Amino acid sequence: MEIAIIGAGMGGLTAGIALKKFGHQVTIYEQAEQILPVGAAISLWSNGVKCLNYLGLTEQVAKLGGQMDNLAYIDGLSGEIMTQFSLAPLIEEVGQRPYPVSRAELQNMLMDAFGRQEIQLGKKMVSIADNGQYVEIGFQDGSNARAELLIGADGTHSMTRQYVLGEQVERRYAGYVNWNGLIEISKDLAPAKQWTTFVGEGKRASLMPVADQRFYFFFDVPLPVGLENNRTEYKTLLKQYFSGWCPPVQHLIDSIDEQKTNRVEIHDIEPFTQFYKGRVVILGDAAHSTTPDIGQGGCQAMEDSIYLSRALQINTLGLEDALKRYQNKRNERANELVLRARKRCDVTHMKDEQITQAWYDDLRKEQGPHIMKGIISNIVGNPLD
Ligand SMILES: Cc1cc2nc3c(=O)[nH]c(=O)nc-3n(C[C@H](O)[C@H](O)[C@H](O)COP(=O)(O)OP(=O)(O)OC[C@H]3O[C@@H](n4cnc5c(N)ncnc54)[C@H](O)[C@@H]3O)c2cc1C
Questions:
Q1: CA distance 2 to 19
Q2: Is pLDDT of 382 > 90?
Q3: Can you tell me the distance from the alpha carbon of 140 to that of 158, in angstroms, rounded to the nearest whole number?
């Protein structure tokens, strides 16, 4: 089949690689002239890693991944360890290590695996017309393309979603701002092979190892939406928001490079169930946009891609049947994870002070199994289990 994918993010690229393996003729159209991933890094949980392993990228992704052996929560103000444990039981249960990876490196690896020559950059899709036999795609530069199937992997502001649903849905502000970046591993910050999270006052400062002796760091602060975003003030503001927090958090703020730090106001989208119309289908953030609180947005985009390509491969009753199977299977799981992330987000970011305080108290009693059970429940149920 001739397939056009809109968007060269992790969803579009993973789908492209999978569909090419099944013999389809795939072109990816990307609006950006140059691919610059938003955000510094991402935690690829074991379900996301399994999707890439399935596509033959086992060694490549392992090379990019940090060694995350342990997990710890620290009281951000006092510096006292609330809980600290090995992730070995989780890895053993799900059968695959999670890998925090640099986004730019993941993007490059996926682009190489797909084939850069079949990615058309500077192609912003502005119109979709489905005549039942094929889809005609119009681009901002005046050019057109034709495909038997159009896959909208065009992210949270998706135009394809608007076409499929017949309306543009509003994004919902989740109530907090996230700053993130990469920094050299140092023992003044946290142990090198540990995912360390400092919590308190509904805020977080977190460090995860990625390859080449780097930590992916992020800060979360509950704040109103739409505040001024001035890069040169990031350190001053973070010092203010984390005033009185323990020395590693102060050291982290002192060490960041404001020019290489990203600031994101976190949103999600109320789940919906329609993922296709005619010969047009959506996946990834276009289909289910989540807060990053359980680190599953990108992993779900990868699961969508594997499931969609397999649905097209193994069902022979026609395109409509395969797309319906994909839609029904995927909206059940992905939408459930959007709601789980939203719940986690509210607890972490002190939507209700009592609930967040109770969570902090639970962390002090935790020895690992309860937290790991939660993470495992996000990982299992993936299309490759
Ligand atoms: C702070 C933060 C932390 C996160 N952490 C994690 C994590 O730890 N683990 C995890 O799994 N997920 C995480 N996520 C979520 C993850 O980043 C997204 O779910 C993932 O990037 C979605 O991939 P996608 O391919 O669907 O969309 P995108 O990555 O947004 O890609 C969409 C692409 O489509 C292109 N495009 C859009 N419109 C058009 C058009 N009209 N024409 C042509 N091209 C177009 C865009 O330029 C873009 O390149 C995080 C998100 C944030 C904000």
A1: 10
A2: no
A3: 15
Q: What count of other Cβ atoms lies within 10 Å of the Cβ of residue 11? A: 30
Residue nearest to atom 50 of ligand 1 (CA): 292
Q: For residues 336-366, b (16+ Cβ closer than 10 Å) or e, as one string? A: ebbebbbebbbbbbbbeeeebeebbeebeeb
Which residues face 280 on adjacent strands?
150, 277
Predicted confidence (pLDDT) at residue 227 exceeds the cutoff of 80: yes
Question: What are the beta bridge partners of residue 217?
Answer: 181, 207
Give the separation between CA 31 and CA 8, rounded to whole angstroms: 9
- What's the CA-to-centroid distance between 269 and ligand 1, angstroms? 14
Q: 83: helix, coil or strand?
A: strand
Q: What is the side-by-side order of every strand in the sheet holding 125-130?
A: 125-130, 135-139, 144-147
pTM over 0.90: yes
- Strand 135-139, strand 144-147: pairing: antiparallel
Distance 337 CA to ligand 1 centre (A): 16
232 is written with which tokens? 């040169």
**Burial of 40 per CB tally in 10 Å (0-12, 13-18, 19+):** buried
For residue 38, the CA-to-ligand 1 centroid distance in Å is 8
Pocket test of ligand 1: the residue of 6, 38, 42, 275 to mutate, having most ligand atoms within 8 Å of its CB, is: 42
Measure the CA–CA gap between 340 and 362, rounded to whole angstroms: 19
Q: What is the spatial distance between Cα 46 and Cα 357, in angstroms, rounded to a whole number? A: 30
Residue 133 CB neighbour total at 10 angstroms: 8
Ligand 1 pocket, CB under 6 A: 6-12, 29-32, 39, 42-43, 48, 123-125, 153-155, 159, 178, 180, 264, 284-286, 292, 295-299, 301
CB 175 within 8 A of CB 51: no
The 10s digit of each residue's pLDDT in 80-103 is 999 999 999 999 999 999 999 999
Q: How does DSSP classify residue 33?
A: S
What pLDDT score does 38 carry?
66
The rounded Å distance from CA 161 to ligand 1 centre is 14
